[in-house]
Amino acid sequence: MEQYKDLNYNLPSGFDIELIPSEKRLESYLLDVIRTVFERYGFTPVETPAVERLEILQAKGNQGDNIIYGINPIVSSSEDDESKKEKNSRALKFDQTVPLAAYIARHLNDLVFPFARYQMDMVFRGERAKKGRYRQFRQCDIDVVGRQKLNILYDAQMPAIIAEIFSTINIGEFMIRINNKKILAGIFESIGVNKEEEIKLYIQIIDTLDKVGKAKVKQNLQAQGLSDSQSLQIIDFIEFKGSVTEILDFLQQKATEINNSDTFHKGVAELQSVINGIKELKVPTDKYCIDLSIARGLNYYTGTVYETTLINHESIGSICSGGRYENLVGIFAGEKMPGVGISIGLTRLLRKLLDNNLIDKMSATPAQVMVLNLQQELIGTYLEVSKKMRDGGINVLTEFDDIKLGKQLKKANKLGIPICLIIGAEEYKTKSCKMKILKTGEQLDVSIDNLVDEVNQKLLEI
RNA sequence: GCGGGCGUAGCCAAGUGGUUAAGGCAGUGGUUUGUGGUACCACCAUUCGUGGGUUCAAGUCCCAUCGUCCGCCCCA
User: Fold this and answer.
1) Domain spanning A369-461, CATH class
2) Which of A143, A228, A221, A144 is nearest to A184 (CA)?
3) Which residues from 344-363 of A have any strand B atom under 7 Å from their CB?
4) Which fold has domain A21-355?
5) Which candidate, A301, A305, A309, places its Cα nearest to that of A292?
6) Strand B and A62 CB separated by under 7 Å
7) Tens-place pLDDT, residues A126-161
8) Where are the domains of chain A?
9) A427: Cβ under 7 Å from strand B?
């Protein structure tokens, strides 16, 4: 034992994702909420391995090697199969979309399309870690993937899902910002930028608007070749603000003026359909808006894009984002498979919610009742009473050791257990117990026979 | 990859060349043993990431090394 105490047992950079029990319980709760909502919309769970073949992860359409975390076996003996393989031939998944593409290709014949799946696995990034930016983190993703085509209503369903999740977990007001990349691409086409590569570049510049500011964006656009007036035109366009109706009217108006970009017209029509769907899904109108500046740096998005921010906490950044992509998921199956999906970066979100006190803390244990130990001779009774309550659906912690009552209460208090049951010689005689509510100090005599009902009743009141 | 900062207990730290290494939080024990959260008392670093050097003297200066953090880039 001694010899290891000097080793550095701190977590390696970027892997500092451990949570103390109260925090981990909160994460479990969030996962439960998210899973429940995903399943309510018919999404089915999928899990893929942490490791994929490197060439899969490097397949076109992804974000490049700089974010991939490679793995190698430590031992490379000649008998080791791994060592015969090329070094770095395997790597950890950096998102769930590329693995989804591979999953679909592997199980094409077993899946029903449109395939709606959710996945809440850990993913890994090889890039430099920073605060709130991890090398391992949990992403909660949903995607719907069609063969050849995918109904635009799936795009409308995403904001409904986001709204339901974030309304359920009580973290304050939020706003789902919706845009369509075809509109952005179209506006560039309308001013004479027609090369796809250039448009992508410009859109990436636009994406930095809220981070670096208007002046810098204008400067960057011009640096890439736009004229002064073109830059202003673009910035004016993406900065147009208003209600959903006002922006749609503005876009319709704009569409009549633009006759050199089909893309623009398509984008406006898609956005219109998405908004119509959202209205029919009865997403509360104060939960979503159109934001023409939303671009999503990732260039695989081709249509609808989403970002969700917390009102008054915009600095936290997007807490849930995603969009529609045409050519990402079918790459291995060799088929056109349009998809639409969103992702919640749960590890980062939870950290920020905790750091900013935006979410109520939970207790350090799921136990609702602690059965205290007053004398070892009664341990049989304690176990019996504990079981009785567990059978009644109550989470119970039993104190096995005969330690001072004060210490037991202190322990229960620290764990955040709301109710303690005290059974000593006196209570034993009368087949009763003392039910102590820790928060108030209130103490009630309860018959063992009615215990389950009484405790359940009290738990509801607290 | 380039540039900069920082490493003192589980955590947050004071200390900027003189030797008993402040303080706070957390933790442990106690305030007469069947009642916690408050209060009070006590305990809690032979040692300052590691190795070497300078000096009568080093947590403090120098070198190396490891770790870590920030900015550029990119994203959850």
Assistant:
1) alpha beta
2) A221
3) 345, 347-349
4) BirA Bifunctional Protein; domain 2 (3.30.930)
5) A305
6) no
7) 877 777 788 889 999 999 999 999 999 999 999 999
8) 21-355, 369-461
9) yes
